[in-house]
Specification:
Blueprint: E1 2-3, E2 5-8, H1 12-23, E3 28-31, E4 43-47, E5 50-53, H2 64-69, E6 79-81, E7 86-89, E8 95-98, H3 102-110, H4 114-138, H5 149-163, H6 167-178, H7 181-186, H8 192-199, H9 215-221, E9 226-227, E10 230-231, E11 235-237, H10 241-254, E12 258-260, E13 265-271, E14 274-280, E15 285-288, E16 291-293, H11 297-303, H12 312-320, E17 327-334, E18 353-356, H13 360-373, E19 375-384, E20 399-408, H14 418-436, E21 444-450, H15 452-459, E22 495-497, H16 511-524, H17 526-531
Parallel strand pairs: 1-15, 2-3, 2-16, 3-12, 7-18, 16-22
Antiparallel strand pairs: 4-5, 6-11, 7-8, 9-10, 13-14, 14-15, 17-20, 17-21, 18-19, 19-20
Helix pairs in contact: 1-10, 1-16, 3-4, 4-6, 6-9
């Protein structure tokens, strides 16, 4: 049989895309390389009695429209908000807490700088004004350069939100898209601790320094989400991130979507100038009118397609697409909660993001060290301990922690291999936490570690890139992944993309899956067919 749509990869965006296509009456099949759905949003037991979100680990960016349309809450979707956003131990033995409401954060900032506390409301307003524009664009396909008048019309319509901003707000947009995080934050704050509290978001999944031009946008990308209707909030999915994708898979199956596990794709099949299906590694060929790739652009175009099936100019651009987020991921089983020197007793800080990156200079040194040696000897570490709010993840009295670490080179210098260096890098990460929480190492019962190479091997993330590609200005909006193909349509008829390598980028958002489905259904309508002539 021939499927109306075949989706490569059962990550959350593939499942979201399948839902909308199935709802429209299409016969949909998903093929997944692993033995579990979810892509990087999965919950797995890594030691007897200890479960955790293996890669993606926290909730904020999942689109409210997707949650509502799929009725996720009716099937058990539940998110617990963090009482505060982040806790940052400082090098002098102090700490900074971010979040818990404006007044509370102002009072905390005032301990470091009264000027910064006074500046906070205006800073939040500036970010929110820009973030609101991004929220409006997240569920819209970018204008596709090369579509003639349609490009001009789509560009004008999407630009209306920007045109309504005041001149000062438009200046903020320009700053956030072009400046480094440091330059942007320096214009607002004087305290190094305060700047670090916000600057951390600029290096999450971004193999760059906070001094790198454009890093301010990555900061912004992490603040336009919401949890339970609260904008900018972050939270924990009960049961881990895998609960979300398991719910999505059940909803899709109930709608007739076929999901085939342990079915890796060898090649996308093209006949003439049109996609006709895929061939699996097993040799099985599956016919489909449309193939939708929920994998990164580099994986799709460099490994799953024959070069002769792609236009030469497009292939050149696709190969130049930059990927590699400099991320190292660990999960640890703990016999007890870590006791931080600056804040030793259990408290709300254990339910927040615990950030070991006290200054922007610390973050810059970590990046420069990684460029020189492969990883930083004082890496940037974010620890989350979800078992403090979800007792389903660990035995009584014990805990699980995620260690999400930045500034680990996607490819090690001097021909070294991550398989040989992974253990040493993990020890370095544990030592970094130990400096702020003595006894942490002794409390570790078990651990798993995923270097950039390990992330690529396990989840198919090219260069270990959690975003499927750098979130730099040249790879955003209509230029993600390649200008002229930013509207989820590939360079071959019937080929589409629905992963994080398309607009609006990385994170568990569901937006690329939603938008790709809309593009596919539009192309299938009478108006889409006329436009395609």
């Amino acid at each position: 049989m021939t499927y109306d749509a075949l989706i490569i990869g059962a990550g959350h965006n593939g499942l979201v895309c399948a839902f909308y296509l199935a709802r429209a009456g299409m016969k949909v099949r998903i093929v997944e390389r692993r033995d579990i759905v979810g892509g990087a949003a999965v919950t797995e037991e890594f030691h007897p009695g200890f479960r955790n979100s293996v890669a993606s680990y926290t909730v904020s960016l999942l689109q409210p429209k997707v949650i509502k349309d799929m009725k996720l809450a009716d099937h058990g979707y539940r998110v617990i908000e963090r009482p505060i956003s982040n806790f940052l131990p400082q090098e002098n033995g102090d700490f900074l807490k971010l979040g818990g409401g404006l007044q509370r954060t102002q009072a905390e900032f005032a301990r470091f700088s009264k000027k910064d506390a006074a500046a906070l409301p205006a800073y939040y307003d500036a970010l929110e004004n820009v973030a609101e524009v991004l929220r409006g664009l997240a569920l819209k396909a970018p204008p596709n350069v090369g579509d003639g008048l349609r490009t001009l019309y789509d560009g004008a319509m999407q630009g209306r939100a920007l045109s309504k901003l005041t001149l000062e707000q438009q200046r903020d947009v320009l700053d956030l898209f072009t400046k480094s995080a440091r330059t942007f934050l320096d214009s607002w704050f004087e305290s190094e601790a305060v700047k670090a509290a916000f600057g951390f978001d600029a290096v999450v999944g971004n193999y760059a320094s906070p001094d790198t031009p454009g890093s301010a946008y990555v900061l912004l990308h992490h603040v336009f989400g919401e949890v339970n209707g609260k904008k900018g909030a972050w939270g924990h999915s009960i049961g881990g991130m895998g609960t979300i994708t398991q719910i999505m898979a059940k909803i899709c199956r109930d709608m007739g979507v076929e999901i085939s596990l342990e079915s890796p794709v060898d090649q996308v099949l093209v006949d003439g100038d049109k996609v006709v299906g895929v061939r699996l590694v097993s040799g099985e060929e599956i016919a489909a009118s449309r193939v939708i790739a929920n994998v990164g652009p580099k994986l799709l175009y460099e490994r799953m397609m024959a070069p002769s099936d792609l236009p030469a100019d497009f292939l050149k651009r696709a190969k130049a697409f930059k990927a590699g987020s400099g991320t190292f991921r660990m999960n640890v089983a703990l016999s007890e909660l870590p006791r931080f020197t600056s804040h030793p007793e259990p408290g709300e800080h254990h339910q927040s993001g615990i950030i070991i990156a006290p200054t922007l200079d610390y973050m810059d040194r970590a990046f420069m060290d990684a460029k020189m040696h492969g990883w930083s000897k004082e890496p940037i570490v974010e620890m989350l301990i979800p078992s403090t709010v979800d007792d389903s993840l660990a035995p009584p009295g014990c805990h699980v922690a995620s260690l999400f670490c930045q500034q680990f080179a996607p490819v090690l210098p001097d021909g070294r291999d991550w398989d040989d260096e992974e253990e040493a890098a993990a020890d370095c990460i544990i030592d970094t936490v130990e400096k702020h929480a003595p006894g942490f190492r002794a409390s570790i019962i078990a651990q798993t570690r995923l270097s950039p190479k390990g992330l690529e091997r396990k989840f198919g993330l090219s260069g270990g890139d959690i975003m499927h590609g750098n979130m730099s200005l040249d790879q955003l909006w209509a230029a993600r992944p390649v200008l002229g193909h930013g509207s989820y349509r590939g360079p071959v008829s019937g080929l589409y993309m629905c992963g994080a390598g398309t607009h609006p980028g990385g994170g568990v958002t569901g937006a690329p899956g939603h938008n790709a489905a809309r593009a596919i259904l539009s192309d299938g309508s009478i108006f889409g067919k006329l436009r395609g002539r």
